[in-house]
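To whoever is on call:

I kicked off a structure prediction for a single chain this morning and the downstream step that reads the tokens threw a length-mismatch warning. I double-checked the sequence; it's 127 residues and nothing unusual in it as far as I can see. Pasting both halves so you can look.
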Amino acid sequence: MNKFLYTTAILIIVSFSFCSSPKANLKLPSSYIVQDSIEAGESALISYFIHNTGNKSLIIEKYTCSCECTFVDLKNSQVILPNDSLEVKSKITTTKNEKYLSRDVLCTFKANTDSIFHRIHIKYTIK
């Protein structure tokens, strides 16, 4: 009986220490960002925030976008401190022959919070 109580107490302490360990927590405003139309041959700036609501630094490990027309001001290994945010600025460039197209650019990034890739879809129309 004493061995059972001892083992149970150890399991409770170990599980409590895992629950209270510091961790980063990534929060996005939305997975979709809709931009007003962009004039053909022009550029548009889009920005959004990545929030770290955890109590450990969040590290953006990888970041890519599906279209070379999108430049993102975000570096791999970018650090977001606990309870802080990072403004991500994106520049979308169109060409003159892209009139009346609708685009959905997918930007994905991986952070040290978990094993999944997080996504942001940027939707816009070229006029």
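Update from on-call: the warning came from a stale cache, not from the record. Cleared it. Sanity check on the structure: The first helix runs from residue 2 to 19.
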